Amino acid sequence: FFQRQKMEITSRKKNGGPQTAKYKEILAEQYKKCVFPAVNKKYKEYVKGVSWEDMLALVLNLWEFMEKNLGPGKDSSALMRRLPARFFFPRQNNCEPLVHIIGIAFKVKNEKNLRRFDFTSSPHHSVEMLLEMDKVLKEECMYVSPCIFFSKKIGAAKKKTLADMAKRNGFEVTSNVNESTHVIVSFTDEDPAEGPNEWFRPVLRYNSYCVAHYWYFPDSYNTLLKKKDVAGEVEEYHQKERFYVNAYWLIHTEKYNEIMNEDDYEEVDEEQQVVDAKRPQANKHKQNVKQKTKQKQTQKKQKRKKSKSAEDSDNNDSDDDDDDDEMLEPEIKDIPASP
After folding, report:
1. Which of 43, 71, 183, 262 has its CA 20 to 30 A from that of 337?
2. Does the global pTM surpass 0.85?
């Protein structure tokens, strides 16, 4: 499906933290021209006096926090899963996920009256902020929480092991393929990540640099390399209605506490894809997310209208009372609370 370039001596980062110096140097222009204006437009009331440098520094601190507290080997299961690291690399003229991440951070800071961001002494507060970001990103359909269907090719014992793993990570398991976002097609004994060589492909390009993604490593390990050292065309990640992957996508997701790049694990399941072709309404799961979000927004608007109507009614009654010669006891009404 995708090109591979072999590295005899790996140029990959050693961990899932940021390449701070390179990130600042290479992405400064993106923050100035794309990220900063978009955040100011979407979250204007929360970012007054905030510079693009402040936004860039915030993202690097968030990234470093996730590596230290939510990375592999950490007791992160009780906290949360890492945000998809691909969101930290804004696309040309498309930086919407990063806009929400930055905007929500400053919104939380403003609402909690925090003087500054503190990612060292209060990790639970930082996790609360990350959970709010995760919620908004899902509501905006930037990505969805996986809903997994197991192919009948997976044996009963392996299926139970994988299903327990999925539930342990907060994923849904379904017996209806039409509700799924991921179909686990196969589960071999050989882990594809244990080969002798490392392979990568370019997934983004910034002027003289590109972002290299390494097969069977999470996107947080994506590495900024000089364009002259990387051959081939850029192959960006694209969200699909449904991914067909092998079981190691799920196994590695638990290992790194980060949803893995499905492109590394894709397999063809011709039998299941034929079934999908007969069901063009496929992926009700994503549609349900959009419907629930829309319903919540509608309910909030209706509550605001009711609250405003009740307040207007009370104000009118008060004006009428002022005109009366006698002081009357006001009628006590139940006013709906504002959301």
Report:
1. 43
2. no
